[in-house]
Amino acid sequence: MLRNLDFAILAPIPETYLLAGREAIAAQLDAEIADPSLAFGTNEFEVFGEAQQKRGDKAVSVFIYASEPAETPLNPEITWQAIYKSSSHSRRAATPAKPCVVQPTASAPRMPGQSTGS
Length: 118
What we know:
By secondary structure, this protein is α+β, with helices and mostly antiparallel strands. 23% of the residues lie in helices and 22% in strands. It is built from two helices and three strands, in the order E-H-H-E-E. The chain is globular. The termini are far apart.
């Protein structure tokens, strides 16, 4: 897939989600999934809707930094890079009926009053 070089996405993702995502990717690689994927939820659907329109059929680089780190670094920096594939809308934080990617356990949607498990 060609990469769109006109823009990129800078994404703050909570550190706990990134660590859970690393575990989810490792599990997919252990299961010999050739193209492991992750899904993270966001309320920034307008940003991703615009990215979806601008990118056309090209991939977009995503530069990720850990927000809410356990220890705040003196010089926060981008620590992960990914490729934005697509977005899908959900209703009340529900995951798609037929998910095609893995959502890290730590970032799974919670219903009001549901325990976070931490």
